[in-house]
Amino acid sequence: MADRLDVIIFGASGFTGKYTVYEAVSVLGDLKWGIAGRNRKKLEDVLQDMGIKANKSLKNIPIIIADIDNQSSLLEMARRCRVLVNCCGPYRFYGESVVRACIEAGTHHVDVSGEPQYMETMQLKYHDKAKKRNIYVVSACGFDSIPADMGVIFIEKNFDGVVNSVETYLQSYTKGGPTDGKGALHYGTWESAVYGLAHANELRGIRQKLYPEKMPRFQPVLKHRPLIFRSEIVDGVCLPFPGSDRSVVMRSQRFLYEQDKKRPIQMHAYVAFGSYLTACLVAMAAVTFGLLAKFSFGRRLLLKYPSLFSFGFASHEGPSEADMERTYFTMTMKALGWPKLETSLTTEPSGSPTKSLMVRVSGPNPGYGSTCVALLSTAKTILRDSSKMPSTGGVYPPGAAFAKTGLISELEKHEHGMKFEILANK
C-alpha cells in the first residue's frame, strides 16, 4: 500500500460527499487524499467550490473516475487508496459492489449507512472474507449512530462499576431564528429511510443467520417506555427513536460479549420534542410514513413528494448552508448499573441497579457537518490506530471497531466534531 493514497472519498459530487470534501481539508490534514465519482466536471466543480469555502486551493487533489455500475472501475479505484470513504447511497442499492471491490483490493471501507438490512447483510456475507484480507469494513460512521454507539463506549469507560442499561434521548434545535424552509434532510437520506422501512421484514431472517445462537437474557431487563411520555431526563416529550441506533449498539455489544466476555449493555433509544402537540404530530406522520412505505404505490408517493410527507423536513435540494450552521444536536444518555464489584458473566450482580451516570454527546450541523467529520475521523483512526482495533479485519459497527482506539478524542478536535461530557455521576 506504500504508493497508494491514504483516503479516497467516493461519491464526492453528491450532497454528503461534497461536504465530506470540505471537512477533509481540516480533518485529514497532511494525509494524501483524493476524490472519486463518475463525472469529472462535477468533481472538479466540487473541488473548486469547497476550496473556496475552505479558503484553500484543492486543484492538486487527485480525481479518480469510477462508476457504481462498472465493477472494474470500482476495483481500480479501491486499489488506489488505503481507506475508501463511501458516500454513495442508498447503500442497499449501491453499497455491496463497493464493499466487494474494497475487499478484493485489500482496502479498508467506511460509510455512513443507517440501513440495518445493508449493514447486517454485509457482515453476514463479507465478515470472514474481510478477516482473511485483514481489512476493516465499518458502516454507521456518521450521525446519529456514532454518538449512540461511541457514547455507550464512553459511558463504560467512565462508569466505575458494571453497566446494566443505557437510555438515549436525541434532541435537535436551531439558533438564530427560523429556517428558510428547504428542509433538514437531503432527498438521498429520505430515500434510504423509505426503502429501509419498506424492507424491514428482511431483518429477522438476516439476524437468524448472522446470530444463530441467542445471547443469555441478563437481568434486570430494560423495559420499554410508553409510546409517548414526558421524560424527567431531558424535560421533553419523547417517542421511540426509529433509526438504526439500537441495532448498531446491540451489534457492538454482541461483539464485545463474544470477544471480551463482557456483560452486554442493554439500550433503548428515544427522540425528544418540546411539547405533546409536536410529538403527536410526529407520531402521526411516522405512522403514515410506515403504512405508505409498505406498498409500492405508497413508496412512489413518498419519493415523489418528500417535502409534503415529511412536513418540509426533507427535500431534493437539501438544507441550505445557513440552516445547517444553525442546527445543533444533543444526545443525553442515562446509564444504570452497580458500583464496582467482582463480577463475571457467570456471577451476576445482585439487587437492583443503584449507580447512575449521565453523559451528553453534542455537536453542530449533525446531518452534514458532524456526520462528515465522524466519517473521516473513522478513516483516519483506521490508518493511525489499527493496532487497537480487533486483531483481524472484518465487518463491524463503530463501537466494536473503535472501542479501544482514540476515535472519541479525534472527534472532539474539530469545529464540526462532537463533544463527549459527563453530566452527573451518582
Write the layout of secondary structure elements.
Elements: E1 5-10, H1 15-27, E2 33-37, H2 40-54, E3 63-65, H3 71-78, E4 81-86, H4 91-105, E5 108-111, H5 116-133, E6 136-138, H6 145-158, E7 161-174, E8 185-186, H7 187-198, H8 202-210, E9 229-231, E10 236-240, H9 245-260, E11 266-273, H10 276-293, H11 296-304, H12 306-309, E12 314-315, H13 321-326, E13 327-339, E14 355-364, H14 366-385, E15 394-396, H15 398-402, H16 407-411, E16 419-425
Parallel strand pairs: 1-2, 1-4, 2-3, 4-5, 5-6, 6-15, 7-11, 8-12
Antiparallel strand pairs: 7-13, 9-10, 10-11, 13-14, 14-16
Helix pairs in contact: 1-2, 1-14, 3-4, 4-5, 5-8, 6-9, 10-11
Describe it for me?
The chain has 426 residues and is of the alpha/beta class. It has 2 domains: 5-138, Rossmann fold (3-Layer(aba) Sandwich), CATH 3.40.50.720; 146-366 and 415-425. The protein contains 16 helices and 16 strands. The chain has a 7-stranded parallel beta sheet, with helices on both faces. Strands 9-10-11-7-13-14-16 form a 7-stranded mixed beta sheet. It has a two-stranded parallel ribbon with strand order 8-12. Helix 1 (15-27) links the parallel strand 1 and strand 2. Helix 1 (15-27) crosses helix 2 and helix 1 crosses helix 14. The radius of gyration is 21 Å and the shape is globular. The termini are far apart. The relative contact order is 0.16. The mean pLDDT is 91.
Task: Give a nutshell description of this structure.
The chain is α/β, with parallel strands linked by helices and 426 residues long. It has 2 domains: 5-138, NAD(P)-binding Rossmann-like Domain (Rossmann fold); 146-366 and 415-425. The protein has helices at residues 15-27, 40-54, 71-78, 91-105, 116-133, 145-158, 187-198, 202-210, 245-260, 276-293, 296-304, 306-309, 321-326, 366-385, 398-402, 407-411, and strands spanning 5-10, 33-37, 63-65, 81-86, 108-111, 136-138, 161-174, 185-186, 229-231, 236-240, 266-273, 314-315, 327-339, 355-364, 394-396, 419-425.
